[in-house]
Automatic annotation (TrEMBL):
This is Phosphatidylserine decarboxylase proenzyme. It is a peripheral membrane protein. One of its GO terms (cellular component) is plasma membrane. Catalyzes the formation of phosphatidylethanolamine (PtdEtn) from phosphatidylserine (PtdSer). Binds 1 pyruvoyl group covalently per subunit. It is an enzyme of class 4 (lyase). The modification Pyruvic acid (Ser) is found at S254. Is synthesized initially as an inactive proenzyme. Formation of the active enzyme involves a self-maturation process in which the active site pyruvoyl group is generated from an internal serine residue via an autocatalytic post-translational modification. Two non-identical subunits are generated from the proenzyme in this reaction, and the pyruvate is formed at the N-terminus of the alpha chain, which is derived from the carboxyl end of the proenzyme. Its main location: membrane.
């Protein structure tokens, strides 16, 4: 009964207005009130503040500053084996596995299409058909910066406007095409492991999605698809990110989806739906690597 009520509220609540209100409040400097809100959040969600560079909650001027808090340098060791890709975020695996043709598994009884997820981009869809995917849900208590699974050269970013449904396990299991309906930022990289996409999915109360190279992508929410492209690594203006380097962040929690081309990587056998994830641990092993020269000269 409670689950039905929660799902019903997802359909009727003014999600965009609530999200904008939450974003506004989270960015305000309110002194003792800000600290009180942060302390309540830490208590309710059992946040481990000892991992943060600044464990004292009084040191954060806004709730957003606390929410995107950096961790201590040694809090998340990065797997250094060059044949291994790493998990990009703390959280829980929603689903992972093979992309069957164009179809990605969302939850029991629900799949969605690559084409819909990638906003109808046929070229990108063809890159990942029959490839591999991983969907990671970041709960409110988690560290909310997203990092690179491997070295990558940014080639394309697409902002897709959409709904702002919650992306917790309940909605994932009950709302069809959830990730292809919600607002998202699609980032495509050239890597030694073939093309890779990392998608930051928006949700209710996610006040902002940011990337390391462009800052805030949303808001404002203008309701139109936007696309940016970047040159290869040996050209002026290239954006090159290294394995483990921060690539984006959420101001309030959401979901990260990674897509890999077919035959390039094998997902770690230790991972399964509902597995907890920690940034820096093994995500996948290389099946086929490209030379640095090939990566540099991808079109």
């Amino acid at each position: 009964m409670l689950d039905r009520i929660k799902l019903g509220l997802n359909n009727v609540l003014p999600k965009k207005a609530l999200t904008e209100l939450a974003g506004w409040g989270a960015s305000k400097r309110a002194g003792w009130l800000t600290k009180a809100v942060i302390d309540a959040f830490v208590w309710y969600y059992k946040v481990d503040v000892k991992e943060a560079q600044k464990p004292d909650t009084a040191s954060y001027r806004t709730f957003n500053d606390f929410f995107v808090r950096p961790l201590c340098d040694d809090a998340r060791p990065i797997e250094t084996d060059p044949n291994l890709l790493i998990l990009p975020a703390d959280g829980v695996i929603s689903q992972l596995g093979r992309i069957h043709g164009d179809q990605i598994f969302q939850a029991k009884g629900h799949t969605y299409s690559l084409e819909a997820l990638l906003a109808g981009n046929a070229t990108m869809t063809d890159m990942f058909r029959n490839g591999e995917f991983v969907t990671i849900y970041l709960a409110p208590r988690d560290y909310h910066r997203v990092h690179m699974p491997c070295n990558g050269i940014l080639r394309e970013m697409i902002y897709v406007p959409g709904d702002l449904y919650s992306v917790n396990p309940l909605t994932t299991q009950n709302i069809p095409n959830l990730f292809a309906r919600n607002e998202r930022v699609i980032c495509r990289f050239d890597t030694e492991f073939g093309p890779m996409v990392q998608i930051l999915v928006g949700a209710t109360i996610v006040g902002s999605i940011e990337t390391a190279w462009s800052g805030t992508v949303t808001p404002p929410r203008e309701g139109v698809i936007k696309r940016w492209s970047w040159p290869g690594a040996d050209e002026e203006g290239a954006v090159v990110l290294l394995k483990g380097q921060e690539m984006g962040r959420f101001k309030l929690g959401s979901t990260v989806i990674n897509l890999f081309a077919p035959g390039k990587v094998k997902l770690a056998e230790s991972l399964a739906a509902e597995s907890k994830t920690r940034l820096g641990e093994t995500l996948a092993i290389a099946l086929q690597k490209e030379s640095a020269e090939d990566v540099l000269h991808h079109p």
